[in-house]
Amino acid sequence: MTLRNPVRHRDDPSFDTVHSVSLPLSPSPEPNHKTYKTEKIMKTSAVKLLCAIVVGAMTLAAPATFAGTINKAATGTDLAAGASWTGGTAPGSGDVATWASGSLGGALTMSTGPTWGGIALTTATADPTIAAPGSGAFTLGSSGIDLSSTANNMTINAPITLGASQIWNVNVGKTLTAGGLISGLQKTALARWS
Known about the structure:
Blueprint: E1 2-7, E2 19-24, H1 33-61, E3 68-71, E4 95-99, E5 106-110, E6 115-121, E7 128-133, E8 138-147, E9 154-157, E10 160-162, E11 167-170, E12 176-178, E13 182-184, E14 189-193
Parallel strand pairs: 3-4, 4-6, 5-7, 6-8, 7-9, 8-10, 8-11, 9-12, 10-13, 11-14
Antiparallel strand pairs: 1-2
């Protein structure tokens, strides 16, 4: 494409003469809609991928002890049975089995070996004494055992498998008796007195 541009020079004797100048111009490019859409899709995909990576990193960085608290009911002696716990569900691997106000203590059993995230004891009707499971292993996770603010003692006459590093915390003047073999991870603080 050529642009004809008249140029006049006042000092030029041929002032009245029109000169034309040719300037090469490149044609204006037509927008390539396919390229624009591809770039937009790539940017959108990159943003989605970045969001997924951030969410994934936050999930992995979160502590593994998002344990629920499952309270021991005032009735029921089989700790593997849901009926022995408030809400009708026995604690699972991510839960802390908790004895709170009104929880049944005394002689307790386990028909099968449960896996709990941990144990917490603040108050019970009597000092809980847990017998060995009828079958399976009794496993404790990373929440360990917390008797730091209890008015009770606790006895666990069952082999305990440590499923993760943990702390067992016992209130001053109170006792936690582990009457069975303790196995599993070796780097565990087994006792700390408050």
